[in-house]
Here is the input.
Amino acid sequence: MKKYILFFLMINLFTGCDYFNTYSLKNKSGQILLVEVVVNDKYIDSKNIKESMMYNLRSNKIISLDTINYKLKLSLDSDEEFMFGGATNGYPLLDRYDQITIYKEDSLVFYGNQYIIQNLYTNSKQDHTEVLNIY
Here is the structure.
Protein backbone atom coordinates (compact mmCIF):
# COMPACT_ATOMS: atom_id res chain seq x y z
CA MET A 1 0.00 0.00 0.00
CA LYS A 2 2.86 2.38 0.81
CA LYS A 3 4.27 1.84 -2.68
CA TYR A 4 1.00 2.97 -4.26
CA ILE A 5 0.80 6.09 -2.11
CA LEU A 6 4.44 6.91 -2.85
CA PHE A 7 3.85 6.32 -6.56
CA PHE A 8 0.77 8.57 -6.51
CA LEU A 9 2.69 11.35 -4.73
CA MET A 10 5.59 11.10 -7.17
CA ILE A 11 3.25 11.35 -10.18
CA ASN A 12 1.60 14.45 -8.72
CA LEU A 13 4.97 15.98 -7.99
CA PHE A 14 6.22 15.66 -11.57
CA THR A 15 3.01 16.59 -13.35
CA GLY A 16 2.28 20.21 -12.68
CA CYS A 17 -0.87 22.20 -13.12
CA ASP A 18 0.90 25.15 -14.68
CA TYR A 19 -0.65 26.71 -17.74
CA PHE A 20 0.90 29.08 -20.23
CA ASN A 21 -1.08 32.14 -21.34
CA THR A 22 -0.22 33.54 -24.75
CA TYR A 23 -1.40 36.49 -26.79
CA SER A 24 -0.66 36.63 -30.48
CA LEU A 25 -1.72 38.16 -33.76
CA LYS A 26 -2.67 35.87 -36.65
CA ASN A 27 -2.74 36.73 -40.35
CA LYS A 28 -6.15 35.60 -41.65
CA SER A 29 -6.15 37.94 -44.66
CA GLY A 30 -4.96 35.39 -47.20
CA GLN A 31 -2.20 37.81 -48.22
CA ILE A 32 1.28 38.60 -46.97
CA LEU A 33 1.33 41.27 -44.26
CA LEU A 34 4.23 43.62 -43.50
CA VAL A 35 4.83 43.94 -39.75
CA GLU A 36 6.94 46.76 -38.32
CA VAL A 37 7.78 46.62 -34.61
CA VAL A 38 9.77 48.78 -32.23
CA VAL A 39 11.26 46.70 -29.41
CA ASN A 40 11.24 48.18 -25.91
CA ASP A 41 14.83 48.99 -24.94
CA LYS A 42 14.52 47.26 -21.56
CA TYR A 43 14.43 43.95 -23.45
CA ILE A 44 17.62 44.70 -25.40
CA ASP A 45 20.86 43.11 -24.32
CA SER A 46 23.61 45.54 -25.34
CA LYS A 47 26.04 42.65 -25.91
CA ASN A 48 23.63 40.75 -28.12
CA ILE A 49 21.28 43.29 -29.72
CA LYS A 50 20.29 41.33 -32.81
CA GLU A 51 19.35 38.14 -30.94
CA SER A 52 17.48 40.01 -28.20
CA MET A 53 15.43 41.88 -30.82
CA MET A 54 14.44 38.65 -32.53
CA TYR A 55 13.68 36.76 -29.30
CA ASN A 56 10.62 34.50 -29.61
CA LEU A 57 10.01 35.35 -33.28
CA ARG A 58 8.87 32.38 -35.32
CA SER A 59 9.07 34.11 -38.69
CA ASN A 60 12.20 33.60 -40.75
CA LYS A 61 11.20 36.37 -43.15
CA ILE A 62 13.04 39.31 -41.61
CA ILE A 63 13.09 42.20 -44.08
CA SER A 64 15.17 44.68 -42.10
CA LEU A 65 16.71 45.03 -38.67
CA ASP A 66 17.63 48.45 -37.26
CA THR A 67 19.82 47.79 -34.22
CA ILE A 68 20.20 51.50 -33.42
CA ASN A 69 16.49 52.38 -33.12
CA TYR A 70 15.46 48.78 -32.27
CA LYS A 71 13.11 48.53 -35.25
CA LEU A 72 12.30 45.29 -36.99
CA LYS A 73 10.40 44.65 -40.24
CA LEU A 74 9.17 41.21 -41.22
CA SER A 75 6.62 39.63 -43.50
CA LEU A 76 3.84 37.50 -42.11
CA ASP A 77 2.42 34.81 -44.38
CA SER A 78 -1.20 33.75 -44.36
CA ASP A 79 -2.13 31.82 -41.18
CA GLU A 80 1.21 32.72 -39.59
CA GLU A 81 1.24 34.13 -36.05
CA PHE A 82 3.17 36.96 -34.42
CA MET A 83 3.53 36.51 -30.65
CA PHE A 84 2.89 39.58 -28.47
CA GLY A 85 3.78 37.86 -25.23
CA GLY A 86 3.17 35.07 -22.79
CA ALA A 87 3.41 34.06 -19.16
CA THR A 88 3.11 30.97 -16.99
CA ASN A 89 0.23 31.04 -14.50
CA GLY A 90 -0.60 34.70 -15.04
CA TYR A 91 -1.27 37.50 -17.46
CA PRO A 92 1.11 37.76 -20.42
CA LEU A 93 3.66 40.55 -20.26
CA LEU A 94 2.74 42.72 -23.23
CA ASP A 95 5.35 45.46 -22.94
CA ARG A 96 8.04 43.90 -25.16
CA TYR A 97 7.01 46.02 -28.17
CA ASP A 98 6.58 49.77 -27.90
CA GLN A 99 4.83 49.99 -31.26
CA ILE A 100 3.43 47.54 -33.81
CA THR A 101 2.28 48.61 -37.27
CA ILE A 102 0.84 46.20 -39.83
CA TYR A 103 0.38 46.91 -43.53
CA LYS A 104 -1.46 44.99 -46.25
CA GLU A 105 -0.69 46.14 -49.79
CA ASP A 106 0.54 49.59 -48.64
CA SER A 107 -2.56 50.18 -46.50
CA LEU A 108 -2.42 50.45 -42.73
CA VAL A 109 -4.37 47.54 -41.23
CA PHE A 110 -3.38 47.71 -37.56
CA TYR A 111 -1.54 50.10 -35.28
CA GLY A 112 -0.93 49.39 -31.62
CA ASN A 113 1.35 50.46 -28.85
CA GLN A 114 1.82 48.46 -25.67
CA TYR A 115 -1.16 50.18 -24.00
CA ILE A 116 -3.54 49.45 -26.89
CA ILE A 117 -2.41 45.82 -27.02
CA GLN A 118 -2.80 45.48 -23.24
CA ASN A 119 -6.30 46.99 -23.46
CA LEU A 120 -7.28 44.59 -26.26
CA TYR A 121 -6.10 41.66 -24.14
CA THR A 122 -7.86 42.93 -21.01
CA ASN A 123 -11.16 43.15 -22.92
CA SER A 124 -10.78 39.64 -24.42
CA LYS A 125 -11.83 36.27 -23.00
CA GLN A 126 -8.27 35.57 -21.77
CA ASP A 127 -8.63 31.83 -22.41
CA HIS A 128 -4.91 30.87 -22.27
CA THR A 129 -4.32 31.18 -26.04
CA GLU A 130 -5.85 34.48 -27.04
CA VAL A 131 -5.43 35.37 -30.73
CA LEU A 132 -6.09 38.69 -32.48
CA ASN A 133 -7.05 37.88 -36.08
CA ILE A 134 -6.17 40.35 -38.84
CA TYR A 135 -8.35 40.11 -41.98
User: Anything to note?
Assistant: The CA atoms of residues 42 and 117 lie 18 Å apart.
